[in-house]
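FIELD: query
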Amino acid sequence: MTKPYSQACENNKAPILNKIKTYLTGKEKILEIGSGTGQHAVHFAKHLPNIIWQTADQAMHHEGINAWLDEANLSNLIAPIALDLNHDWPVTEKYDAIYTANTLHIVSEPLVEKLIIGAAKHSHSQSHLFIYGPFNYNGQFTSESNQGFDAMLRARDPQSGIRDQEWVVSLVKKQGFELAQDHEMPANNRLLVFKR
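FIELD: result
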């Protein structure tokens, strides 16, 4: 098959890696929720060779993710597990860190809550949670482009949309994490880093 491709992933993979690697020892096992095309997973696993990177997404995305993984042929990159936020997670172990990018504005608010609860359930006591994407602050868009993006999302699915940073932080805090850093990222995105 032709590998799926996201230009946004190509644009943001290096800036994200530069941030998250500063929080890691380099020996973690990390679960990625919503691996999408698989581009982030390949880039991060390639540049963090001692980290085990577990991909995960809905089953319909696995063929595309596996196309990237097969081409990369990295021993520290694990084939995707079928993770659907509407159902129990098919994992029993706990991870040293959990990473998710551009997911919170795609899924509904109840599924955002399930994602955070699941992340907490499958995290070690000293783990990190990395959440990348666009956020609103005090109920306000941070740019005209984000406002337009939000309108497009809601036209496609009224339950999706850019989330308020304060709401997300409150959800994560209820699960025992503290906000360690809120990084400004390119293209009006943010990287929220939480520590348990």
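FIELD: remark
The chain has six helices and nine strands.
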